[in-house]
Amino acid sequence: MRELTYVARRTVEWREAPDPVLQSDRDAIVAPVAATSCDVDSMILAGHGPIAPPYAIGHECVARVVDVGDAISHVVPGDLVVVPWAVSCGDCGSCRSGLQAHCTSVPHMAMFGAPLGGDWGGLFSDLVRVPWADAMLVPLPPGLDPVAMASASDNWPLSWRMVAPHLQARPGARVLVIARGSIGLYVCDIARALGASDVLYVDPDPAHREIAEGYGARTAEAIEPIHHGFDLAVESTGRVDQLAVALRSLVPEGFCESAGNHFRPGELPLLEMYLTGVTMRIARDNVHAHLPDALDLARSGRVEPGRVVSDVIDWEDLPDALPERHLKPVFVREVPDAA
User: Which CATH number fits the domain that encloses residue 104?
Assistant: First the structure.
């Protein structure tokens, strides 16, 4: 089989690899049918990643189950499933607590798409072995489009987690979104659907702002801090200076969620944060804990994640198309139902 391999800045290529095989009765083999790039993949392809290439890339996809071990009861060959980005066992204390991104059965940071905690391959591959498949794989609910939900492995449920609990605790909250990619747009859609009274989306890209306006958000190319302006701020730029703007715009006891991968250091307004009493969270996303609720919202018809998909591209064009600048490209292919 082939796996798409990141080899240099803005360069990926197909490389041959052995077909994955079941290594235990709890494994599954899946074939991605709709795979997309995470916002962090764009930073990796631009040369800002924390690990030197080469390695198999990709950690967001809907896949078709091809084969399963004898102990698997949750899915069967032919099923369409979401493959969460973090590798987890489902049985350890962390997993039972909903912290699957911190599973203690695997090395720290075990994930698809980057060899941070071992080499688990990438989801831009023809075939992928998924360990602990009963715990990991999440069936795609009937009626949901695999292309629209290709980001359900990471960015879509992450966006839900950064907004939904806060709006439940603070109905009608005012939400500031400072973004550079798909996460911020998903946040706008979810925030409006769940009753935010005001959503301001900040992004220098006019095409992104147009999508946000379609979701009912106000938009701006850039802003200075808006003192006591928002109950919730979401930052997904990877820039510490923009994170500081978000923090300085919160009401007393406000909350800032950051999905930015801050590969470069910077300074935060710690004294102002102290005086305002804000809370900030920068965290890996524990997809399993809230993916069912996020998928339920997608099924409700109250949100339209498919509007963020910028391009639908044939699987065979991955090496040429992935390094290009797209908001949220989805790469698709036809795969037999089962082996």
Answer: 3.90.180.10
